[in-house]
Design a protein that fits this description.
Elements (H helix, E strand, L loop, with lengths): L7 H13 L2 H8 L3 H15 L4 E4 L2 E4 L1 H25 L7 E6 L1 H18 L4 E6 L13 E6 L6 E7 L2 E5 L2 H6 L12 E5 L5 H8 L9 E5 L2 H9 L5 E4 H10 L11 E2 L2 E7 L6 H22 L1
Parallel strand pairs: 3-4, 3-5, 8-9
Antiparallel strand pairs: 1-2, 5-12, 6-12, 7-10, 7-11
Helix pairs in contact: 1-2, 1-3, 1-4, 2-3, 5-9, 9-10
Length: 302
């Protein structure tokens, strides 16, 4: 029986545009023109007999049906790339991907998810190093660098993949001892600070319209992951980035006592040297990060 397969180039253009949310960025990744991506997507829409994207100025958004379709075909492209590397180019089987990312992000978001990447790509070795240095200050070259953004650095391509906001979080046990009904109740609590983020609590208190609030006590830590651990241990209330505390909120280790306000924060972005931007392994890892972030944020929204 003949297989009813859509044009593969059209599928590839759809997958890239849907994952990146931009025809322009898809064109850059695929090394084709913006018009070529649009033409491929249009051909796929005609083949399927359905619209796949809603156009919003310079960005595009997937339709509901297209989101489901993308979630199913995305992993197939990864599997195809892995099979090609395995049987077509044996010298790529033991390639190592070097990644540099901030320590707290690595500990709380990246490491818990790396097992899924390793399961899908057992022949890829991932070497992760942690640092908060700016790109210009790094003494080594990496395949993928994760930093806040979006920022522009000469010689690097940048793609945002994980957005976040900051909200107060604490342990359920702390709330049992000292309930938090309104933000003003924090006068009875200990606020947990991170020395590298001195403005986080003042900015949130200003947004909550209680800028002069004086807590019962304050503790400061030099690393953000220590601040979050102190919150988990019931020592006080921390300002938690939604992306990095999503797993703790889902498991009940932490709770968010207030619906708002939510303090805007910078997104996590991947920065890749221009010389590596077309590397298949780099593209594979970037695509995996973006899918994991999409899944993580969908869970947080629920």
């Amino acid at each position: 029986m003949k297989r009813a397969l859509p044009p593969l180039n059209a599928l590839r253009a759809f997958e890239a545009a849907g994952r990146l949310g931009s025809f322009k960025e898809a064109a850059a990744e695929l090394h084709v023109t913006h018009g070529a991506v649009s033409q491929h997507v249009r051909a796929l829409e005609e083949w399927l007999g359905a619209s796949l994207f809603e156009r919003h100025n310079r960005r595009v958004a997937l339709t509901t049906a297209a989101k489901t379709y993308l979630a199913e075909i995305g992993p197939l492209f990864e599997e195809l790339a892995r099979a090609t590397a395995r049987y077509g180019f044996p010298d790529t089987l033991s390639r190592t991907l070097s990644v540099n990312a901030p320590a707290t992000f690595t500990l709380r978001w990246l490491v818990p998810r790396l097992a899924t990447f390793r399961a899908a790509h057992p022949d890829v070795n991932v070497n992760v190093q942690t640092s908060n240095e700016s790109l210009e200050s790094l003494k080594e070259t990496y395949d993928v660098i994760v930093r806040g953004g979006p920022d522009t650095f000469y010689g690097y391509s940048m793609r945002p993949f994980l957005s976040e906001e900051r909200i107060p979080v604490c342990s359920p046990a702390l709330l049992q001892r000292l309930p938090l009904r309104t933000p003003d109740d924090m006068r009875q609590h200990t606020l947990l600070h991170t020395s590298s983020l001195p403005r986080v609590w003042p900015d949130w208190l200003a947004s909550a319209e209680i800028p002069a609030l004086r807590p019962a006590a304050a503790l400061s830590f030099d690393h953000f992951f220590l601040t979050l651990q102190a919150a988990i241990d019931g020592i006080g209330i921390a300002m938690g980035p939604t992306a990095l505390v999503a797993d703790d909120l889902a498991s009940g280790r932490l709770v968010a006592p207030f619906a708002g306000p939510r303090l805007p924060s910078r997104s996590y972005c991947t920065y890749v040297p221009d010389a590596k931007s077309a590397d298949e392994l780099v593209l594979l890892f970037r695509a995996w990060l973006e899918r994991e972030a999409m899944h993580s944020q969908a869970q947080t929204a629920l």
